[in-house]
Write a structure and sequence with these properties.
heterodimer; A: mainly alpha; 2 domains; about 75% helix; B: mainly alpha; two-stranded antiparallel ribbon; about 5% strand
Chain lengths: ~525, ~650
């Protein structure tokens, strides 16, 4: 433990804030030099934070389901505390956040030319808030981070976005407003009812069954928008299309995971009866999402829109996994979120690379990149395959676990969701064909150079992680096991024992003569 | 043995990584030598392992390589399991792969992307080896999709051609349909047995003989459901009727690829899968019946299409499809040894035919249309001789390899009393006649008669370099002797010690009965072969236009066969077009009109023309909203402060 154990989580949030303060005071006559210094400080800050994250991972005890690295100070009055900690469900999301940040800064190195200072500050503040979301153990604190994180993201789209950024950021605002108002009401109600905002205590609080449904729906409104789930997903394609590359990476890589994390942290442990009651709703919406958005992805003309729609489909697997309430489902869902964070982030970076060169996202403007951008082509194909869920890449493990978990629950879910795997191959390979393969005919495309050293540096760690997660996923599954087990055993004892009992399981061994 | 096994599997991977990552720095020659050399070493080691494991019976324990996944009760590792069945596959895969690597050095001489090509070939070899050495279903699935990936990359190797790209995607997506079934099969196995490890499944499957499984709302016999789902995977990979449409199009890839992947090895993975799971299939007569029917139907269907194709590679592709049907017939009637034996001999003679066809194409300046060939047997005599050997082998000429394995299948189909066996027997006899006809038609149209090629091409037709000729000779030797040498072990008296429990038959020993069928049955494939030859000779060697006139008389049937029973058109009409249409409808009408229309767009237009004002004021509003959010948060914070103070 290089950074100490006692307030590592706070340090991880303070570091980017300090970084952004330093950036604020950087002044130089020459704008070029000023921007270079700003970028360097931002990169340095995020790298330091990443090392803190590694420290956190190394010091994390896989054997306990208790919260670790806990910090607790009285904040407002008696009830509201500054209360942080991580368990197996959250620790890897923190790691994902700090892993992606230096990559994002590096990816924005040349493509962001205007208001570099503000851009970097926005990102660093966003990083602190994202870490806050995944580590907050006070529901009020969580709400502040959760909603606060929207502001820098909103600005990133609205200020550094593309042509239609106002519409996109407005849509983003409207959707999330709906969710957050309802969630705030639920949070207030819980506080008044239970008399505490302490998340571990709330997890143990027994809310009345009728109340649970209302609370569950209020949280659902917020998390479903964040995921996003069908039919509240339409903000995502627009937000992605308009966001700058770095914004898209963080949006797909981390912000979407907050919805899934919210379900895991609040809905499942705090509202178990309502969770069981509404799981049919989740399964229905998820399956529609998988098939519907996969078909929509098939006909997209804009690269970013296509990848955005594919994200909605992948998140469908996540929501299915979470609400299966069994080990494979939950672990698969968490793993899918981590994998998707890396893979979709990488795919948006890939789009950024060619967008920087040709300034268009229109698929038909490209073609034949395998001829003049060989390294790029290889990288793009690899990430596409990971997105498709090819075994050996990170994308496979999560999907496989979720689908395996779902088969015990209902083979219909598996059957319908697995069609998404076929459609996924179709739309991704169709994209690869149009971008990477084919002949190189257009003059401006011919002139595009292959990846620069900086760009290779961006992709190298992503490639490594995608393969690592695919070949030796235990590194990432082991921290998850104990917490998932505890979650299921504490809050869903009925579901856990039910699956083992033969009378309700879909397998019947003793039925002689049913066949033959 | 452990070292040897790891060497066999991971040398090709190393070759792939070296040629793939450093191919440009190393140069063409070094990349080719390294990949080919590595696979050749793996090939020699495979024969050693084959001798040790299959012939001497020293089966090593499963070799653990690396942990893979543990989640709840589900756990599986990277591991190498080598028994007789695997040993046979190792020999087939690495032998053909090594020869194809060497052959490609000559064949791909003028291609500017040799390191990439050889890297893909080695990647394919690695994935195939992972598939056949797997000790669990998931690693098998890894190999399964890995070979699919390599196949995708190699079919689309000449990626400037739109047709090659289309074929590559088609191959991958159609295979995914099969993989969909395979994956569901894995989940079903896990649900039933609680493990995906092959040894555990086999040890426990007996106790689930009468178990039922709820699948899509109904209770079915559990093992039948599993076997059929796994078989869907096998159908995709082995191009069986319904999921076969990708294989002929896969001929867009370079010819050595067709020989290795789309004839000798990858497409036989489905046969391997069913054989590997013989203990499971044996417990489901329904599944075996389905396998029999599908195999028999494919054998006849593909042979019928091959009768009229004009592209030399497509003829051989449909021939492969048809021969795979034979193998499934053998599996369906529980003659597993016969299926694997045919897989083994087929690998030699079919790779030989493909590489021979490649040699023809090479000589004819990349012409593949047999209508523009003819009369070149004296120009490329070696190719001609080996192609005739391959043809004799595939048609089952007595003494050559195909004779032993194919006749075994036909006799087993006759001897079997299981449902579908009778149908299968009729189909494979009919297919044998067609096989003989289309195979000799190929020889006659390509090598005999007056040439139909232009003078320049004809004059310059010549044999390839030794890297092309040597693999042809070696494969020809295999095509001649493989049957005679190994029939005793694979399907003869030595079969029990040879297979050593890796293939299981529960009820009776069909191959024993197959040795005692009536003489008429024994002679029937020979008669079919002879008839096919005579017909082909009569149609194509008499120098008349009888072939043309027959096609004109039966023009409906001819068009039906020439267009491959219109499967592509049908699938395009019921799957591809509706998918794109639906996608567009959901996007435009669903997302944009309905969801956005009633959602954000509707709301914003309600809010007193906000949208219009937004357009005027541009960025100003961005900060307004951000400010609104901050205010909102501040209100919430304040409220909490007041509340918690009051508590």
């Amino acid at each position: 433990m290089f950074f100490g154990e006692n307030n590592l989580l706070s340090l991880m949030m303070i570091a980017p804030v300090v970084g952004s303060l330093i950036i604020m005071f950087i002044r130089h006559k020459d704008a070029e030099i000023e921007n270079r210094n700003v970028r360097s400080v931002a990169l340095f800050t995020t790298v330091i934070t990443f090392f803190m994250g590694l420290d956190l991972w190394a010091g994390f005890d896989n054997a306990t389901a208790e919260f670790q690295f806990v910090e607790k100070f009285s904040w407002f009055g008696d009830d509201i505390n500054y209360y942080l900690g991580v368990d197996g469900i959250s620790v890897l999301f923190v790691l994902l956040t700090v892993f992606l940040m230096p990559i994002v800064i590096l990816a924005s190195w040349e493509s962001i030319g205007k208001r570099v200072k503000e851009y970097m500050i926005a990102f660093l503040v966003l990083e602190a808030l994202m870490i806050g979301v995944f580590t907050a153990l006070d529901i009020f604190l969580f709400y502040v981070f959760f909603e606060g994180g929207l502001i820098p993201m909103y600005l990133l789209i609205g200020v550094w976005g593309g042509m239609n950024r106002i519409y996109a950021s407005f849509k983003f605002f409207l959707y999330t407003l709906l969710g957050s108002v309802l969630m705030l009401v639920a949070v207030l109600y819980m506080y008044l009812e239970a008399g505490t905002t302490d998340i571990p205590l709330l997890m143990m609080y027994d809310f009345d069954v009728d109340v649970q449904s209302w609370l569950w729906l209020a949280f659902f409104a917020s998390f479903a928008v964040k995921m996003p789930m069908w039919p509240v997903h339409t903000w995502l394609p627009d937000a992605h299309v308009q966001a700058p590359t770095g914004g898209s990476v963080i949006l797909a890589g981390v912000l979407l995971k907050m919805g899934g994390y919210g379900f895991l942290r609040f809905s499942l442990p705090m509202l178990p009866d309502a969770t069981v009651e509404f799981s049919w709703l989740i399964f229905t919406l998820s399956i529609i999402a998988i098939i519907y958005t996969s078909l929509v992805a098939l006909v997209q003309e804009d690269i970013k829109k296509l990848i955005a729609y594919s994200s909605v489909a992948h998140m469908g697997f996540v929501t299915i996994g979470i609400f299966l309430l069994n080990t494979n489902g939950l672990e698969g869902a968490i793993f899918t979120m981590l994998s998707h964070g890396v893979v979709s982030g990488a795919l948006f970076l890939c789009v950024g690379v060619i967008y920087d060169r040709l300034h268009t996202r229109e698929i038909s403007r490209y073609g034949g990149l395998a001829i003049n951008m060989k390294v790029y082509a290889a990288v793009f194909v690899l990430f596409s395959l990971a997105s498709v869920g090819l075994p050996g890449t990170s994308g496979f493990i999560g999907e496989f676990l979720v689908l395996n978990g779902s088969f015990a629950y209902s083979s219909w879910i598996t059957f319908l969701a697995a069609t998404g795997v076929i459609l996924g191959a179709a739309y991704m390979l169709y994209l690869v064909r149009r971008l990477i393969f084919g002949d190189l005919t257009k003059d401006d495309v011919k002139a595009m150079p292959d990846l620069s050293i900086r760009e290779k540096l961006i992709f190298a760690p992503l490639v490594a992680v995608v393969l690592w997660m695919g070949i030796y996923p235990n590194s990432f599954l082991e921290p998850i096991h104990t917490s998932v087990k505890a979650l299921l055993e504490t809050h869903y004892p009925a579901e856990t024992t039910q699956a083992a009992a033969s009378d309700t399981s879909p397998v019947a061994v003793s039925s002689e003569g049913a066949y033959r | 043995m452990e070292f040897l096994a790891k060497l066999i599997v991971f040398l090709p991977l190393t070759g792939f990584l070296i040629a793939g990552l450093f191919g440009r720095q190393l140069g063409d020659k070094a990349s080719m030598i390294i990949t080919s050399g590595f696979v050749t070493i793996a090939g020699i080691a495979s024969w050693f392992v084959f001798g040790e494991v299959a012939l001497l019976g020293n089966v090593p324990p499963t070799i653990h390589v690396l942990d893979w996944v543990t989640s709840g009760d589900l756990s599986f590792n990277w591991a190498l399991k080598i028994d007789s069945l695997t040993a046979v596959m190792l020999v087939v895969v690495n032998t053909v792969s090594a020869l194809v690597h060497w052959y490609s050095m000559g064949y791909m001489e003028d291609d500017p992307h040799k390191p990439r090509f050889f890297a893909y070939l080695s990647l394919f070899t690695f994935a195939m080896l992972m598939l056949v050495t797997s000790d669990n279903l998931v690693q098998m699935f890894f190999g399964w999709e890995g070979v699919g990936l390599a196949s995708y990359l190699l079919i689309g190797f000449w990626f400037k051609k739109p047709s090659a790209n289309a074929a590559a995607i088609k191959a991958f997506v159609v295979n995914r349909v099969g993989d969909f079934g395979f994956a569901l099969g894995i989940y079903a196995v896990f649900l039933l047995v609680g493990s995906v490890e092959i040894d555990v499944i086999f040890a426990q499957i007996g106790q689930y003989e009468n178990a039922t499984l709820s699948f899509l709302g109904h209770d079915y016999h559990a093992i039948t459901v599993i076997a059929l789902l796994l078989f869907v995977g096998a159908m995709g990979k082995s191009a069986q009727l319904g999921l076969h449409t990708w294989l002929p199009d896969a001929m867009e890839g370079p010819t050595p690829v067709s020989a290795l992947i789309h004839a000798a090895t990858m497409v036989t993975a489905g046969v391997f899968l069913v054989a590997r799971f013989s203990p499971l299939f044996e417990l489901s007569p329904i599944a075996l019946m389905v396998v029999t029917y599908v195999g028999a139907a494919t054998a006849l269907f593909a042979a019928s299409v091959a009768l009229v194709q004009n592209d030399i590679k497509r003829v051989i592709a449909y021939s492969t499809c048809s021969q795979l049907g034979y193998m499934f017939v053998a599996l369906g009637v529980s003659a597993y040894g016969g299926a694997i034996f045919h897989l083994f001999t087929h690998a030699f003679f079919k790779a030989l035919l493909f590489l021979g066809a490649g040699s023809v194409i090479h000589a004819m300046h990349h012409e593949q249309d047999m209508r523009k060939m003819g009369g070149i047997k004296n120009k490329i005599p070696l190719t001609y001789i080996v192609m005739v050997i391959g043809t004799l082998a595939i048609t089952g000429f007595p003494g050559l390899s195909g004779y032993f394995s194919k006749d075994m299948i036909i006799e087993s189909a006759y001897a079997a009393t299981t449902p579908g066996a009778e149908f299968a027997f009729v189909m494979v006899i009919a297919a044998a006649l067609m096989t003989s006809f289309y195979s000799w038609r190929l020889i006659f149209m390509t090598f005999h008669g007056e040439t139909r090629a232009d003078n320049d091409t004809f004059d310059h037709a010549h044999e390839g370099p030794w890297t092309i000729r040597l693999p042809l000779i070696l494969l020809a030797i295999g095509a001649v002797f493989a049957g005679w040498m190994y029939s005793g072990s694979f399907i003869g008296d030595g079969r029990f010690t040879f297979w050593n429990g890796s293939l299981v038959t529960s009820a009776g020993d069909i191959m024993e009965q197959a040795h005692h069928v009536p003489a008429a049955v024994v002679w029937s494939p020979f008669v079919a072969m002879l008839l096919g030859f005579i017909l082909a000779y009569y149609f194509y060697m008499r120098g008349n236009d009888i072939a043309k006139r027959t096609a004109e008389t039966w023009d409906g049937l001819y068009a039906f066969l020439l267009n491959k029973w219109y499967f592509d058109e049908l699938y395009h009409f019921i799957f591809v077009r509706p998918a794109f249409w639906l996608g567009r409808q959901l996007w435009k009408r669903g997302d944009e009109n309905t969801i956005d229309g009633f959602g954000p767009d509707g709301v914003s237009s309600l809010v007193a023309g906000v949208a219009a004002r937004v357009r005027k004021l541009q960025t100003g509003y961005v900060y307004h909203y951000a400010f609104a959010m901050i205010i909102g948060l501040a209100v919430a914070v304040t409220w909490f402060m007041v509340q918690s103070g009051a508590h």
